[in-house]
Amino acid sequence: MPRRSRRRLVPITTLIACALPCAGASAAPNTRVDLPLPGNEQRVEEAGQAQTLRALADRKQDRRDAAVRESRAGDGVVDVAKAQIGDGYAYGAGGPDAFDCSGLTAYIFGRRGVSLPHSSFGQAAMGRPVSRDDIRPGDLVFFSTAGSGASHVGIATGKTTAVSATNSGVMEHSTVDAYWGGHFVTARRL
């Protein structure tokens, strides 16, 4: 009966450490060394890389789709907000013909199926914070018009405009002019 030779398995790092000096090359520890892989292993590695790239592309597309959905939701809120321009102001009013600031935003978001408290301070705790540079249509924008904190709220219609119920009634105004820009507190995305 022929005798089988026993193969001894050697860690790849040992092989590389032995092979590099023999080949006249050198490498520092933790240095990447590219060695050609046999055909099957090369295909497996490339397939794994392709799968990783597809997963990354899918995640990126998911983020884009979510941004589009947010944008469309914001556009619907803006349409309802702009339809209220010209309505009157009354403290504590929640529509449909007169509003205070938080009553207007609660009414508009309520029409879209989102329940908000009838308080600018309460609404300022909803959703997630948005930087001033990242404001999108449909975001809530808050101002300190009566003391400190979020005492006034409106709905962004653009990066620098909002609809809110002021003492003069529901109107669209700048959020960066001398008055509103100086009183800006925060923005929130629902």
TrEMBL record:
Residue ranges constituting the NlpC/P60 domain according to the UniProt record: 71-190
Alphabetical UniProt keywords: Hydrolase, Protease, Signal, Thiol protease
UniProt-listed Gene3D superfamilies: endopeptidase domain like (from Nostoc punctiforme)
Keyword Signal among record annotations: yes
UniProt cross-references to Pfam families, sorted A to Z: NLPC_P60
Molecular functions per Gene Ontology: cysteine-type peptidase activity
Keyword Acyltransferase: no
A Gene Ontology BP annotation from the UniProt entry: proteolysis
Signal sequence region: 1-27
Source species, domain of life: Bacteria
Coiled coil: none
PANTHER family per record: MUREIN DD-ENDOPEPTIDASE MEPH-RELATED
Similarity remark: Belongs to the peptidase C40 family.
Protein name: NlpC/P60 family protein
